């Protein structure tokens, strides 16, 4: 074995492979071509031969550069998100095995032609990243068999006809600018040229996502909206089918569209799909910074956009579903988004629509980009809260209660321009995604104050702080933030109701009412006084506002709160129906209530998640 390796050729230079794992810069190819340049019996003088060889090499290099540019331009219009119909996927090789595989690849690059099985991406700094092709389709599954996802996509398109392209336009104008998963120009180029190469699961999720905005698009509002729950069920089946048959980058995009879909009816299913998306994203190397990689710019933008959205959903669902986040800061190095990532990309300059080619102006794109960047950085702050909340060892989180407050305040101080007005003053809500950002900030602020409230209660209970006014002051501060949320919802207009919203915002509204109930039950000591509680009146005002938005604008984000708390508010505001056992005479008595008490207070807590 040693002698065989000793006789092996020396490792050659690193080969660059194209998307199909074909060598596109193999130096040995030029040697072969230049050796066949002259068939005359009398060879030219050495100087002339050398000049001819150099000229041929230059021509060869120019041809290769032109081919690379053509390939890159083609990929600019067909990014991986919509051109993912190949039978193979590139799976990342773990860092431990990368070095071993690199040594073997260098040996085989000269000895055999097996280098096509691996793709090594070198960066300017850090460790190289190696990908290996894996078969996407399960073994034994016929390639010619039409997938369930294709069948479901056809069903949805039949329901949307003849408004399919108008619905897609609605998604890009209302949704994609605020959560930029797809490049609009590239999507339409691929959709109009070769729609059959677009992932059917991705199309299903996109169609379902667009139906949310049906009544806010004049061209669609004149027609009856299709059954959105039926469409989401079809999209779910398409996604699960693609996860089994041929998962790829487009599958991650489809899952994110589905997890963020409205109305929210399946938290457990969303959690399962999000976990699959995280696992698939890491398998495809999306957690690595692609900026220095020698790959097309379109693929770099695509990978980063998907990763940013995945982080946002992972953290927001962790906050609302009560489960720890899947992603940890130490396992990825993708840079945070900036406005330049969106305003300087080719897709920002050319966003053709399906009909007229009209798009939102540069100001709208820049405004939506600034809101998205602020939302992402807010979830970076939220991640520290989640580490503190879910840490089984309180000291393992590395963040104290006071440091968490400092992080949120520092985030607010870092904001500039229109985004700062959204957060500090609650204005400029006309910007795309601004209302959603405002509610997200108030939700994190309320979370901060609830953490401080519980912290001060524990200190008072253990005798570390004997100031009786500390806990009362924390209740007042947190209640004031809840009041800001109530007033914010009351002042929403039709433009904001028809704008982009994260689906998890529905849990923020429900949590606000629950906290107001807590304030009322803790601070009042009799049913008669409770009926006049300002906290309870705020809860009723929020429920009334949500009911109004549902009736006038079909706004679904309040459905969960209405299902859980409408009846409870009526009971607590009617003295003869209230129960004296609900009241707490001392802050220290506020612990975890008995399960039967929860069932009595919230009889329909999970009714909105039951099949109808």
Element string (H = helix, E = strand): HHHEHEEHHHHHHHHHHHHHHHHHHHHHH
Strand adjacency order, main sheet: 1-3-2
Count the strands?
A: 3
Q: Which range best describes the helical content: under 10%, 10-25%, 25-40%, 40-55%, 55-70% or over 70%? A: 55-70%
pLDDT average, as an integer? 78
Protein name: Xylanolytic transcriptional activator regulatory domain-containing protein
Domain Xylanolytic transcriptional activator regulatory: 270-343
GO biological process, one term: nitrogen catabolite activation of transcription from RNA polymerase II promoter
Region (Disordered): 29-86, 338-361
What's this entry about, in short?
The chain is mainly α and 612 residues long. Strands 1-3-2 form a three-stranded antiparallel β-sheet, covered by helices on one side. It comes from Diatrype stigma.
């Amino acid at each position: 074995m040693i002698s065989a390796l000793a006789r092996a050729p020396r490792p050659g230079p690193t080969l660059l492979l194209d998307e199909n794992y074909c060598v596109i810069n193999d130096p040995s190819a030029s040697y072969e071509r230049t050796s066949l340049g002259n068939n005359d019996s009398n060879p030219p003088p050495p100087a002339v031969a050398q000049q001819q060889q150099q000229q041929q090499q230059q021509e060869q290099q120019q041809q290769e550069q032109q081919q690379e540019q053509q390939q890159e331009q083609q990929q600019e219009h067909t990014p991986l998100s919509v051109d993912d119909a190949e039978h193979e996927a590139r799976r990342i090789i773990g860092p431990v095995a990368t070095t071993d595989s690199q040594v073997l690849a260098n040996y085989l690059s000269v000895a055999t032609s097996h280098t096509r099985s691996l793709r090594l991406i070198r960066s300017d700094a850090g460790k190289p990243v190696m990908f290996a092709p894996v078969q996407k389709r399960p073994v034994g599954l016929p390639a010619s068999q039409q997938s369930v996802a294709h069948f479901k996509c056809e069903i949805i398109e039949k329901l949307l006809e003849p408004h399919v392209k108008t619905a897609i336009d609605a998604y890009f104008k209302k949704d994609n600018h605020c959560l930029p998963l797809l490049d609009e120009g590239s999507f339409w180029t691929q959709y109009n040229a070769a729609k059959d190469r677009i992932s059917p699961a991705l199309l299903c999720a996109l169609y379902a996502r667009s139906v949310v905005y049906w009544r806010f698009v004049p061209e669609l509002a004149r027609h009856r909206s299709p059954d959105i729950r039926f469409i989401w069920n079809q999209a779910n089946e398409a996604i699960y089918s693609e996860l089994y048959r041929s998962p790829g980058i487009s599958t991650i995009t489809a899952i994110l569209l589905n997890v963020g879909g409205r109305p929210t009816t399946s938290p457990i299913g969303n959690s399962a799909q999000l976990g699959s998306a995280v696992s698939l994203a890491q398998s495809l190397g999306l957690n690595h910074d692609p900026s220095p990689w020698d790959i097309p710019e379109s693929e770099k933008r695509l990978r980063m956009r998907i990763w940013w959205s995945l982080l946002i959903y992972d953290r927001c669902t962790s906050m609302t579903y009560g489960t720890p986040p899947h992603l940890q800061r130490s396992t990825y190095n993708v840079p945070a988004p900036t406005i330049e990532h969106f305003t300087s990309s080719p897709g920002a300059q050319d966003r053709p629509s399906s009909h007229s080619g009209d798009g939102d102006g540069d100001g709208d794109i820049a405004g939506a980009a600034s809101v998205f960047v602020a939302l992402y950085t807010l979830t970076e702050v939220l991640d520290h809260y989640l580490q503190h909340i879910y840490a089984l060892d309180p000291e393992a989180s590395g963040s104290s209660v006071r440091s968490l407050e400092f992080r949120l305040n520092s985030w607010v101080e870092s904001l500039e321009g229109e985004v700062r007005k959204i957060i500090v003053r609650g204005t400029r809500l006309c910007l795309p995604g601004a209302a959603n950002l405002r509610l997200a900030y108030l939700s994190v602020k309320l979370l901060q104050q609830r953490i401080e409230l519980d912290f001060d209660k524990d200190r008072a209970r253990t005798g570390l702080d004997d100031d009786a006014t500390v806990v009362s002051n924390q209740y007042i501060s947190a209640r004031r933030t809840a009041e800001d949320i109530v007033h914010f919802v009351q002042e929403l207009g039709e433009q904001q109701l028809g704008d982009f919203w994260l689906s998890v915002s529905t849990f923020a509204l429900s949590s606000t009412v629950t906290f107001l109930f807590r304030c009322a039950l803790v601070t009042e000591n009799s049913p008669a006084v409770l009926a006049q509680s300002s906290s309870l009146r705020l809860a009723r005002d929020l429920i009334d506002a949500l009911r109004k938005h549902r009736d006038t604008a079909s706004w679904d984000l309040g459905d969960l709160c209405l299902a859980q708390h409408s009846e409870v508010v009526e009971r607590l505001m009617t003295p003869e129906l209230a129960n004296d056992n609900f009241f707490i005479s001392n802050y220290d008595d506020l612990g975890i209530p008995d399960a039967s008490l929860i069932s009595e207070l919230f009889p329909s807590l999970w009714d909105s998640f039951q099949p109808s």
